[in-house]
Amino acid sequence: MIESDVRLLDRLRDLHGSLAADIAWLVESAENELGRPDVLRDLGERLTELGTDVLARSDELNAAVLATLPSHGWLPEAGARRRAMTLAHQVGRRPLRCGPIYLSVCGAACFPFYGTDPTGRTARHAKCPKCRERTSCS
User: Which of 15, 71, 78, 99 could form a disulfide bond with 111, CB atoms 3.0-4.6 angstroms apart?
Assistant: First the structure.
């Protein structure tokens, strides 16, 4: 785990530890009409800063995932069809991953058999019509 992940997890744990008390206090203050804008502002700033950092880390991780896949985003369908050429499916700009399998935009399970596909082997596969409809990529 890298240092920035450790810091991010520490901040999430800190938020988790204090959020219940913060919310309870805010609810009680609102019910008693004793709202304090400074407390709301502090909580809002903490959530905003943490959210910005979580999104930035998500973008970094997504870039690392995309670097292992073909730039065109088409992957062969995973499965045990013997001697049959499987369809290629589009996994999109933010691929959903479940273990080594990626879910395409049409919901099919796909596997990056060819890695980044430098030799264009995915082109041998017919493209899924549903994926073509749901994406502007082709």
Answer: 78
Return the sign of the alpha-carbon dihedral for residues 15, 16, 17, 23.
positive
- The dihedrals phi and psi of 25, each to the nearest 5 degrees, come to -65, -40
CA distance 102 to 107: 9
pLDDT per position as a tens digit, 47-72: 999 999 999 999 999 999 999 999 99
CA dist., res. 40 & res. 25, Å (int): 10
Query: Furthest-apart CA pair in the chain: how many Å?
Result: 72
Regarding pTM above 0.70, the answer is yes
Alpha carbons 5 and 12: distance in angstroms, whole number: 10
Question: CA 91 to CA 106: how far, in whole Å?
Answer: 9
Could you give the 3-state DSSP secondary structure of residue 18?
Answer: helix
The Cα–Cα gap between 51 and 29 comes to 25
Strand partners, 96: 103
Q: Which residue type sits at 63? A: A
